[in-house]
User: What shape does this take?
Amino acid sequence: MTTITVSASNTYDVRIGAGLLSSAGETLLSLNGGRTCRVCIVSDDNVFPLYGKTVAAALTNAGFSVLSHVIQHGEGSKCLPVYGEILNHLASEHLTRSDWLIALGGGVVGDLCGFCAATYLRGVKYMQIPTSLLAMVDSSVGGKTAIDLPAGKNLCGAFYPPHGVLCDIDTLDTLSDTIFADGMAEVIKYGFIFDRALLDILMRDKTAFDRETVIARCIDHKRRVVEEDEFDRGVRGLLNFGHTAAHGIEQHSDYTVTHGHAVAAGMGIITRAAEAAGLIREPFSPMLEQILADFSLPSDTDFTADTMTGAILSDKKRDGGIIRLVIADAPGHAILWPCPAADCEAFLARGIRQAKQN
Ligand code: GLY
Assistant: This one.
């Protein structure tokens, strides 16, 4: 097992290893100062049938009183009505501030449960148990919690760090190829923005890479960034490589293009656009496209750049008329490049090859 301690507005451990689900009870007991309490597991209808029993039994055996709230899987559940249903359930069960929530699932469950934890009774403690690669390497660490609004993704949320994170790498075995590839987009992202050696590992080992080592390496990058800029005012923005275009792609596909696939396409688009604009000394888009293809990920989209404009304009990263675009200017190094919002569409268009013409 590998443990990474994140020291931000609160300090918490991220544990990474095989077979950790069955230690959830002992872990929670130690996080809660040896006291038992009531716990609500928030999960979805894909994950709960697979792992709900194991986690609930581990908690019950450690003395906790367990209830659960299972949502429908998918981004559509990250919305105001489902958020309200969970809060009403917690209130009807009279959960108090001494009780805990547990997010058991991927990024949707983690973001939604985290936002419930941030707001129910003005804040209760919660543990993240991510079961997707994407949630392990990105969304379960760093305290960004959110739901979507009809106007866009993650437009309502809070910075509210978890009080513990448990990454059981055995849960990756039940992921579909598509969902595993989603997480790989974020792993590849860390390589291009921070870690050239990680790219060498991925190019050498392909899908046979050592999971615990690579996941821990990504989480350690996230730790460093979150410790420096927890509230996303500077360097944390680098984690959004590919995301400005991705949010538009996700939104315009009605979320049928999943987050990681959209991020992969976004990284390809922004890199080709940056090359065309002369922002990169040594063009490397063929290398990026090859690594993405090795992990069955796209590097382009069928959408035109103008379909991304709405998402760009409601992007949280917009600073007045300026969008901070993340550009990897060499493999393993990234910069924030201020782009006038009015020019963003034309800039992205230079990176899209296969868009259908209107
Ligand atoms: N997922 C990007 C961040 O946590 O900042």
Summary: Residues 138, 142, 144, 232, 236, 239 surround glycine (CB under 6 Å).
